[in-house]
Here is the input.
Amino acid sequence: MILNRIAAQTGRECRLIGVHGGVFHATDDSTAAMVPTEVAKVFAEDGAVTVTCEDHWQGRALAVRAGRRRVGLLMLAEPVPEEALAFLAAATTAVAIVAVQRDAAAVARSETAERLIDELRFGLLRGEPEITRTAARFGLRLDLPHAAAVFAYDGSNRRTWSTALSWLEMPVREVDGHGWAVLGGDIPKEVSRIRVRLQGMVGDAPVLAAAGPLVTGPKETARSFGDAETVLDLLRRRSGEVELLHSSLGLAQLLLGIPAERLDAYVTQQLGPLLERPELMSTLDAWLATNGSRAAVAERMHLHRNSVGYRVAQIRQLIGTDPLDPVMAPRLRAALIAGELLQILTGGTREALEARTQTP
Here is the structure.
């Protein structure tokens, strides 16, 4: 890696920052971004500029250009001696050349990679041995346990997002701010590693990461992709969380394998009188989650404690029993989770459920 050679030659830590402030690479493994306006100021100058990253790291930065294209900023940690600054200036050309080469290689590679991911995601078009061989050329062992993963980004730095995805070492298919991939090995570790790398490059809005179940064989990969999409939808409902794995879903992991019409029947059986009362459904969820703490529910839902008590009394009356009853509580919890999955799988409408379950 060029940055490692620059650091070794100059004795200073080196960072490459993208045009939107995200970290492409850093010899100190930092993911601290820069404000995009500060990056723009460096591009407006002809020489080196002293800059500060979000982790208060100070460095001397030079703009890297490949023709009219802005590649990013190449930076050395302060203090930077004059001889090191001269070496940094020469290194910008090498970085620009590598960027152009990698972009060209990424375009050629991504076309085949995207076809591979699409085929694995939506169903095999070729024989299993052939697609297994194609995947192996990208380092994917479909004959070993693997899982589908999806990375999502809703920020404004879409060009940087696309570049970040294309620079990953595995095949990735980009669709509407989502990056679809197949991962092997230690799935939790891989998901975190890739998400942190992508987050460091885009720098602004959070990158979300979700993974489907472990499967073996290319015919099972489509199922992992389908479940990964559902896991992502569940993740979006969890405020403040950025990673979620199928293996960590608990009861939802089992319920995902049950047909939607059976989930709907169970939800109706257990929660029928509450289904048209969303405020009671959310209160029941909080009541079970806090083991019946009126104060905790009031704080969680921004309600007065008396309002919580009134709602719980309504719930008891409608379902005909105490929701914290040792027999009833697990049933209600399962029904709430099943209802959440139904909203994701069917859009929350009866018409969508009927369309999903209707046979041709």
